[in-house]
């Protein structure tokens, strides 16, 4: 007897989840559909029923999105990348059903979350979540020396936008924001200076999500300072990005870089001699001014009033000096006025914990040299004139 199979929408109905969740499950290798010659996904009903059975007893702790997802977890992840699962699951004791279908408040114009989904997302920290280096869908992302995790960005996108809204990433890299947008049903505009990363970003969607998906988003190859100027005021509902952290990638390779990247023939910087690459600016102060005035304030102009921008950054060391990039950025950007006359104001600072990173004996046994195992998500809003 032929095996019974269904399409994505029916699979979602069968499991009682959204179509985006099905995409996420496929993306993580939890469900393995076949594809028709036209690229449509087909799911064996037996496989779906097995998941439904296995997920009966699972409750959703702290984060409804992540946990909904984990509810299905036979999730095969590289153990080194599973971010301290004990701590991650140690929430405030809020045990809610894994599929929370309470209605969204009619006054909520920000996102599609109901109250119990909204609240955990306001925590000032979260744990970084990645696919793990060996996952088939991590192979394009790995080429880039400093991608962020599309799963972490999905959190931000689902909190700061509604389905169908427009998202901007002015430093698009290999398209992690675009991938998160595609999975979450948002529309991304991604700007990247280097052709190599720009092409990989498009390829990433085509290969990891599906043929034709990249065409739903806009990938621009160019200097973000020029490209942003061409765009119309108040077009975007959200901006999320990770900028170059000045020139840290240009410093001499340490043990970790040698082992993890050079040994695998992977790039260690964005470009070698491109003067438009903000990572190649000599002086830190010049870099900060350009980043804030030419990029982030311009992004502010492109945002609709009351909408948010999230900057994912980390502090770093320059030789023996510790540079608190996140606080410098706040000092430079907070309360600045956009060219269309609005004020950019800081709304919060989330800490993104990277508890999976291996500790290195920097400074031992002479001095305190920090293992920087967290990033910051700086949350700004475009506020009234
Ligand atoms: C931290 S990475 C962003 C990675 C991205 N979030 C991802 O997950 O792939 C910063 C990116 O900014 C790009 N970049 C540097 N200067 C730029 C410029 N002037 N215009 C556009 N992109 C630029 C770099 O090539 C690099 O890919």
What would you say this structure looks like, in words?
With 385 residues, the chain is of the alpha/beta class. The chain folds into two domains: 5-57, Orthogonal Bundle (Multidrug-efflux Transporter Regulator, Chain: A, Domain 2); 115-383, Rossmann fold (3-Layer(aba) Sandwich). Helices cover 30% and strands 18% of the residues. It contains 13 helices and 13 strands. Helix 1 crosses helix 2, helix 7 packs across helix 8 and helix 12 (284-302) packs across helix 13. The longest helix has 19 residues, at 284-302. It starts with a strand and ends with a strand. S-adenosylmethionine binds at residues 144, 146-148, 171, 173-174, 176, 191-194, 197, 223-225, 242-244, 270, 276-279.
Structural features:
385 residues; alpha/beta; Multidrug-efflux Transporter Regulator, Chain: A, Domain 2; Rossmann fold; eight-stranded mixed beta sheet; globular; binds S-adenosylmethionine
Furnish the topology, listing elements before pairings.
Elements: E1 5-6, H1 8-15, H2 19-27, E2 34-35, E3 41-44, H3 45-54, H4 64-70, H5 85-89, H6 115-118, E4 125-127, H7 150-160, E5 166-169, H8 176-184, E6 187-192, H9 195-208, E7 218-221, H10 224-229, E8 236-241, H11 255-260, H12 284-302, E9 303-313, E10 316-318, E11 321-323, H13 325-333, E12 343-353, E13 374-383
Parallel strand pairs: 4-12, 5-6, 5-8, 6-7, 8-9
Antiparallel strand pairs: 1-3, 2-3, 9-13, 10-11, 12-13
Bound molecules: S-adenosylmethionine.
